[in-house]
Design brief:
single chain, Rossmann fold, binds fructose -6-phosphate, 35% helix, alpha/beta, Glutamine Phosphoribosylpyrophosphate, subunit 1, domain 1, 608 residues
Length: 608
């Protein structure tokens, strides 16, 4: 979604900002813009489409400024045009604003400002901010921003500059992430650490309701009444290399290939094989509370929710705790029944998904213990939950989530062992699960080693307009995840179903042009799966079966077979998802699509 980068220091601001914006490209956007201050005057440039278009506009007219703000916009109010692109300027051109989030009362504010003579040039909600700040600006710039924000309803992460204040950037946050990057004789602001990772690893995360004045050598955080707030500088763990492609054609392939390492990273220091249990530092403070919980609700969106569904099966089977998995976007609009014996687990790669965040806040209000499974360290969900476990999967740049999913499954397995061992799970069972986790990296490497076979298969199926994915028990959520991966990056219509449910309607879709991807490892529901596959075969459907190594029977009933190594049933999705990711990846490549940045999608969805 929209991205913000701001810079103040001795480097060339235009180049630094363009570099930062490029690092945010993965988030998805449809226009970009920049505003700098030179000789006390704000100059802004904008372009529709890719950042190279903006770069072309700046080339040859680079003013070598020392201060500026910039933005990538993902259209919400108004089409992706230059007028609607940020930064937005005040009538006198002195003030420039970039904004992430949604101003809910912008229509009313706009009407009032128009009455006062302000001229609007865009259709956006964001433009009201520039005019509102102009309205309040006498000589105290920060005060004017505070006063303006007090009138605003909705969410914002903003960066603002004024031509007559060339030494400062004002930034503020409510519901949309912002981080300050602290350098030497220079400071940064960004909506995502990826933008500033190449320049500094020292950061300060802004909280909701905070506003900061940044100068070259200083930053000062207050609330909107200008009451000082103490802040903490944190160190980013990720390196710049980790956030680059590392020789692969796409981030998505790089991230798929990283999965063996991700398993090692997300389990490092956490496994205690001798005692058949795990140590999760982030949950230690609430371990006693966890012992007493009687129910778990998992809240997440998209791929993270599918990980949650696998977690539900695991926790019910091995920890014997009732678990429900909810769409985070629905949760607060129902009447959730929660108490202090309920633990709510939010799963989120970015830690910034607006729906998941809103759901977790609602759960907190209702007195539940809130836990996070989050990849981005210091993100809002990580900070707002009572306790949690980081994935340690490293930065995930491709819009389609891959390694974050596997790491979410790993963390859910670890939590299952922890909760299970607090209850009835025996040491032997705990040890068995841990031993199998330790074998996963090698098994994933084996699957990745056969990626060219999946590439061939992808070529064969790349032109089909529809796909159905089927699975049962632990592999039912995997069917949904496989279908989501395919549809989001190849634009092929695909649906994932619980295999047993298919004959209650969806089987009507099946004919020779509607292939089925059946996930049928040799597990406790294998025979049931085979019956469903036979039903499809009888209707002439093409069938790909994903099954366990050595299962030659599959070759007799399927058009194509993909094999994965054997593991515990509960861990099968961690292996099974890898061929599904590769299949979707190669189909997208064969269809000539933008794999890492599929149309209409954004990496982190920070609006409802
Ligand atoms: C799909 C995908 C999305 C995200 C969802 C939640 O590949 O990436 O479905 O899983 O938007 O995002 P996070 O995990 O950041 O909360």
């Amino acid at each position: 979604m929209c991205g913000i980068v701001g810079y103040l220091g001795e480097k060339n601001a235009e180049n630094t900002l363009l570099e930062g914006l490029k690092r945010l490209e993965y988030r998805g956007y449809d226009s970009a813009g920049i505003a700098i201050i030179k000789n006390g005057k704000v100059t802004s440039r904008k372009a529709v489409g890719k950042i190279v278009n903006l770069e072309k506009k700046i080339n040859g007219k680079n003013m070598d400024a020392g201060i500026g703000i910039s933005h990538t916009r993902w259209a919400t109010h108004g089409k992706p045009t230059e007028e609607n692109a940020h930064p937005h300027l005040s009538c006198d051109g002195n003030i420039a604003v970039v904004h992430n989030g949604i101003i809910e009362n912008y229509q009313a504010l706009r009407e009032e400002l128009k009455k006062k003579g302000h001229k609007f040039v865009s259709e956006t909600d964001s433009e009201v901010l520039a005019h509102l700040i102009e309205e309040f600006y006498k000589n105290d710039f920060k005060r004017a921003v505070c006063e303006a924000l007090k009138l605003v309803e909705g969410t914002y992460g903003i960066a603002v500059i004024a031509g007559d204040k060339p030494q400062e950037i004002i930034v503020a946050r409510k519901g949309s992430p912002l981080v300050l990057g602290i350098g030497e004789n220079e400071n940064f602001v960004a909506s995502d650490v990826a933008a500033i990772l190449g320049y500094t690893k020292q950061v300060v995360y802004l909280n909701d309701g905070e506003i900061a004045k940044i100068t070259k050598n200083n930053f000062e955080i207050t609330d909107l009444d200008e009451k000082k707030i103490d802040s903490e500088i944190s160190e980013i763990e990720w390196s710049l290399e980790e956030s680059q492609k590392g020789g692969h054609d796409h981030f998505m392939l790089k991230e798929i290939m990283e999965q063996p390492k991700v398993i090692v990273d997300s389990t490092r220091g956490r496994l205690m094989p001798d005692e058949g249990t795990v140590r999760l530092g982030g949950l230690e403070a609430v371990e006693e509370k966890l012992r007493k919980i009687e129910r778990i609700i998992i809240l997440a969106c998209g791929t993270a929710r599918y990980a949650g569904l696998v977690g539900e099966y695991m926790m019910e089977e091995y920890a014997e705790i009732p678990v429900e998995v909810e769409f985070a976007s629905e949760f607060r609009y129902r009447k959730p029944i929660l108490d202090e014996r309920t633990a709510v687990i939010a799963i989120s790669q970015s830690g910034e998904t607006a729906d998941t965040l809103a759901a977790i806040r609602e759960a907190k209000r209702k007195g539940a213990l809130t836990l996070g499974i989050v990849n981005v360290v210091g993100s809002t969900i990580a900070r707002e939950t009572d306790a949690g476990v980081y994935n340690h999967a490293g930065p995930e740049i491709a819009v389609a989530s891959t390694k974050a999913f596997t790491s979410q499954l790993i963390v859910l397995t670890l939590m299952t062992v922890l909760l299970g061992r607090q209850r009835k799970m025996s040491e032997v069972t705990g040890r068995r699960i841990i031993e199998e986790i330790e074998k996963l990296p090698k098994k994933i490497e084996k699957i990745l080693g056969a990626k060219d076979d999946i590439k061939k298969l992808a070529k064969k199926y790349a032109d089909y307009p529809n796909f159905m994915y089927l699975g049962r028990k632990y592999c039912f959520p995997l069917a949904e995840e496989g279908a989501l991966k395919l549809k989001e990056i190849s634009y092929i219509h695909s649906e994932g179903f619980a295999a047993g449910e298919m004959k209650h309607g969806s089987i009507a879709l099946i004919d020779e042009d509607f292939p089925v991807f059946a996930i049928a490892p040799k597990d406790s529901v294998y025979e049931k799966n085979i019956s469903n596959i036979e039903e499809i075969r009888a209707r002439m459907g093409k069938i790909i079966i994903l099954t366990t190594e050595g299962n030659k029977e599959a070759e007799k009933i399927a058009d194509d077979v993909i094999y994965i190594p054997k593991t515990l049933e509960m861990l099968t999705p961690i292996l099974g998802v890898v061929p599904l990711q590769l299949f979707a990846y190669y189909i997208s490549c064969f269809r000539g699509l933008d794999v890492d940045k599929p149309r209409n999608l954004a990496k982190s969805v920070t609006v409802e």
